[in-house]
Amino acid sequence: MKIERIKIFITLVDLESYSLTAEKFELSQPAVSMQIKSLEEFFDTELFYKENSQIKLSPAGKIVYQEGKKIVKRWEYLKQRVEGKKNIQTKNLKIASSTIPSVYLLPDIISALNNNIEVLKTEVSVGDSRSMINLLENSEVDLIVVGYKPQNNKFKSVELCSDNLSLIAPLNHSLNNKEKIFLADLQNQNFLLREEGSGTRKATISAFKEADLKLDDFNVISQLGSTEAIISGVESGLGISFISEIAAKKAAICRGVTEIKVADAAYERKFYLSYNKNRHDDFLINSFIEAAKNIL
To answer: Are strands 122-126 and 54-57 parallel, antiparallel or unpaired?
Structure first.
């Protein structure tokens, strides 16, 4: 018995139309009827009956429909696994990531992935969220991990984890002596900001907006192209800045900066994994998603 025959049967039940089923499988209507007849001969029983000119499933047909869907699902999974093993020998998994996930999320995910899949090679491009989204739109990478959800209906996006903004300042900064700090208290400070297209920049501006403030209300003296550059700038005394809480906690331990709580800047953002919808059954992409869910 061929899997394709079961697929045709299931589709006929779902669409309730021989013509639509024939169109979907690029067959003639008589060819669809022949496939159903062959299935009935295989089981030696009728799978359909007509009632008021409508096609109805017989009791046996209901069983074939229910169990057939399970068989097809398992078959597709088997094909996916086999294809994945074949592709691993010849194809890298190309990932594009914004800076925070590339440093603080991807290493653990890729490590887990390599433990589960033999001979896997990954290639990671790093940049701001907008640039990484452009790479996926141009099909230059297999998946992206970025700081905001791409607005493209050709993408499937999965939420990986959430993050908050944290203010960092030099260790000897005057803000360290204040008991409570609000965004308005930062307006006369030298401020460092990420570049256009950055998810962190977008989250920072959104936090300002929620407090009825604008970017122009702050003394932005420098725009820098990475979280590492921001941390280094703050450490040298150039100014203060909002960065990812994930990055801020590590920087406060390992670098010459301090993390400061701002009372009205409790803005949460999320990191998303996105890929093209037409690759929903890709073995490597699904394996990456599974590894990410297990870790995060």
So the answer is: unpaired
Regarding whether 179 and 247 lie in a shared domain, the answer is: yes
The pair of three-digit structure tokens given for residue 15, joined into one six-digit string: 């669409």
pTM for this model (two decimals): 0.59
Domain that holds residue 8: 3-88
- pLDDT tier at 142, thresholds 50, 70, 90: very high
Asked if 280 and 156 sit in the same domain, the reply is yes
Residue from 287, 294, 289, 293 nearest 118 by CA: 287
Total structural domains in the chain? 3
258-288 in b/e burial notation, b at 16+ Cβ within 10 A? bbbebebbebebbbbbbbbeeeeebbbbbbb
Does 104 share its domain with 152? yes
Query: Residue 63: beta bridge partners?
Result: none
For residue 144, the cross-strand partners are 96, 274
Measured distance CA(76)–CA(71) in Å, rounded: 9
**Can you tell me the distance from the alpha carbon of 231 to that of 234, in angstroms, rounded to the nearest whole number?**
5
Does one domain contain both 82 and 99?
no
- Per-residue pLDDT at 14: 87
CB 102 within 8 A of CB 127: no
Split at pLDDT 50, 70, 90, the class of 87 is low
pLDDT exceeds cutoff 70 at 86:
no
pLDDT tier for residue 90 given thresholds of 50, 70 and 90:
very low
Per-residue burial over 187-197, b if 16 or more Cβ lie within 10 Å, else e, is: eebbbbbbbeb
